[in-house]
Specification:
alpha/beta, about 200 residues, 6 helices, about 35% helix, Rossmann fold, globular, seven-stranded mixed β-sheet
Length: about 200
């Protein structure tokens, strides 16, 4: 399965969390599935929903996944999917929200620490390595004294919602770049200052 990538959007299950900041990773995976013309179906062994396809004819195969577990215990489903589809950790892309990056900003990296993100921590633990690719979607820090734990579970604000479709699309573009051109080339494009 050398040309297969597992792309996981982290988030929480159920309608209550659908459009919250914590679920931005799942919105990105929804966008990728739409681009492939694929729909999600249950993958019971992994406790996840999966959409499989290719972004273009002859391109790499993507397994787009949304765990049914809560964010902080995402590792089990990710590890089960990687084993089921025989995908090595360096071909796993985890898309997640990031408090320490301003809203409307993307950062790409492979490996390293979890930065206090419990979902990423659990994935690294379950995979037995932190060496997977992360597409970090900036949601920014909460205003004033609001608890970050509450902030991530709030829906995006009205102003953010105007920009959100563009951010989600750009994050999906970043995943495509990683798959097609490699992480370094994708970082050079994504991290370049916007004109």
């Amino acid at each position: 399965m050398a040309d297969t990538w597992l792309v996981v959007g982290l988030g929480n299950p159920g309608p209550r969390y659908e459009l919250t900041r914590h679920n931005v990773g799942q919105l990105v995976v929804d966008e990728l599935a739409a681009r492939m013309g694929a729909s999600f179906s249950p993958q019971k062994q992994a406790n996840a929903r999966v959409a499989e396809g290719r972004l273009r004819i002859g391109g790499a195969k993507l397994v787009a996944a949304k765990p049914n577990s809560f964010m902080n215990v995402s590792g089990g489903p990710v590890s089960s999917l990687a084993k089921f589809f025989k995908i090595d950790p360096d071909r796993v892309i985890v898309v997640h929200d990031e408090l320490d990056i301003p809203f409307d900003t993307l950062r790409l990296k492979a490996g390293g620490g979890h930065g206090g993100h419990n979902g990423v921590r659990d994935v690294a633990k379950a995979l037995g390595t932190p060496d997977f690719v992360r597409v970090r979607v900036g949601i920014g820090r909460p205003p004033g004294r609001q608890d970050p734990a509450d902030w991530v579970l709030d829906p995006f604000g009205a102003t953010e919602r105007k920009t959100l479709p563009i951010l989600v699309s750009e994050a999906a573009d970043a995943v495509e770049l990683i798959v097609e051109e490699g992480l370094v080339a994708a970082q050079q494009r994504v991290h370049a200052p916007k004109a």
